[in-house]
């Protein structure tokens, strides 16, 4: 049947909603009928993939429409076309069948497809005898979706997509397209509005900003050599393993000679050995997924599946992770499902409707960041994000995700005034859709990747952040760890006080032990503490220059002796003086100064002691691993506690937060005999006064007389009983 002229006109101007019904080969009573749009051609011959000529096509419309009957059944085709004495070949994307199958349709529709990152987006595959790229995107309310890119001169008329109406996905296989081709989606909304070109939500590589196209990609790495590392973490309980995290902003840890970002390979050469030397167990990167705005530090993420082009191609990040693992270092990445920016090329009103976000700003707008909020209750959106978490674990072998701004997800009234939010069905403020989503993420990653763990930045007292996400406890979120924000706030407030006043604020240190085991905590001194006018960590300390350094050394000693895993933001290990800025490298030249090198040496030794001494890490998350020795000596500003390991080992941690030496201080100790001094933050090679206990003390009758250096923390490990 001859199509209606309006249908042909729509086909030629790229507005036909079902181009596969008219284009390509179709079986008919007279044989296989072929229709093709070949702009610029005057003659065309249809050929099989092996080059066999199947028949000439006639030019039936000067705008490039060809028709004709060919030999053989419908099959993938290419056309040898010519004009003005020149000849070239054109591959026919409309001669190929769909790639997605009924099982994909079913799982996508149910929201339970845990391999969607293999199905949606752009994938270099072999299909029906041809190499090419399969494009698939979810846009259920669109009238038409076309792929535009380098391979079709960004002409939307060339590759309109096939609509799978049951699931709202549009797909097309385009032969002869390879790795690294730039592309976007041209989406026509249901009302006929042509939307700004959209980057691929599932795109696995991106152009360097300010360009915003997605790039066709392939699996980034096949030759992984990190089995030993991954097997180790799959077998241990991370709560009882030493975890000391070095938080890094990849764009400013170090720059090259041109003050530009290091690529992943250059970063691997410098950062991995440094972290090994410093004794950290993990690197945690601020978000490395593609984002349009540098000063967002990556927290305004748009390309959730694409490592940022700022640091080179995606395979570079895979090599970095592999190299870190081979060196025994884990890699965590910050993950941002709490919000997304509304840039025109991104997810906002993706198909002309509030697809990924809520339509009502009381649910779908984040006042803190002027961004959109994911509609966690929509199964396709939840599936998109769950798949993204799984993607980083599988494709890049990352060891865990630190999930940003969890508190903002849990409460509908977060940062909102009365009338600016909508209660849940029971009239409460809890966002149960977000809760269910977070539980689904944790069940998925823990279920599929032994050794993987998640960390929540959650600043409220939500019950059960790190409790297993079992069915009979809906509020339990299933995270492995939670940042201890209370520890950070209370202890830094204490350290900022003049020592003469600290006696009146003793509970700033002691209070945190009331809840230290309510969750599995990470003690995080993160990037948030050294930006936006807050100054550097050393400059938060009280006193003159010497006292600031002494206070910071004492603080680090207290922190590494306190129950909980450790996290320190880059630069603070050597007492960076300037406030951190994403626009410049850390001030590495400071290490030429003894005070800064001393601080770095201390952090190195603290990490070593923490890793090698089970009493300091084996019961980080369990109350049985902690015992107060001195809790109420506010007058002397002394704190002392015991850390236990399950194997019987124990370490005493003692902090003197005054500038006075406490000589012959009676320290209760539960075991008789020799206690070896394994850390003294006042040691001269750290920049201290060198006062201490000559390497050990002896406990008799339940106590030892010890010297407590000024503004210092010491650690004493019990090594042998009295003779």
Automatic annotation (TrEMBL):
It comes from the Bacteria. Residues 247-619 form the Glycosyl hydrolase family 13 catalytic domain. Its EC number is 2.4.1.18. SUPFAM superfamilies: (Trans)glycosidases, E set domains, Glycosyl hydrolase domain. Pfam families: Alpha-amylase, Alpha-amylase_C, CBM_48, GlgB_N. The active site is at 404 (nucleophile), 457 (proton donor). It is an enzyme of class 2 (transferase). SMART domains: Aamy. Pathway: Glycan biosynthesis; glycogen biosynthesis. InterPro entries: A-amylase/branching_C, Branching_enzy, GH, GH13_cat_dom, GlgB, GlgB_N, GlgB_N_E_set_prok, Glyco_hydro_13_N. The keyword DNA repair does not apply. NCBIfam families: branching_enzym, PRK05402.1, PRK12313.1. Monomer. Belongs to the glycosyl hydrolase 13 family. GlgB subfamily. This is 1,4-alpha-glucan branching enzyme GlgB. It comes from Novosphingobium humi.
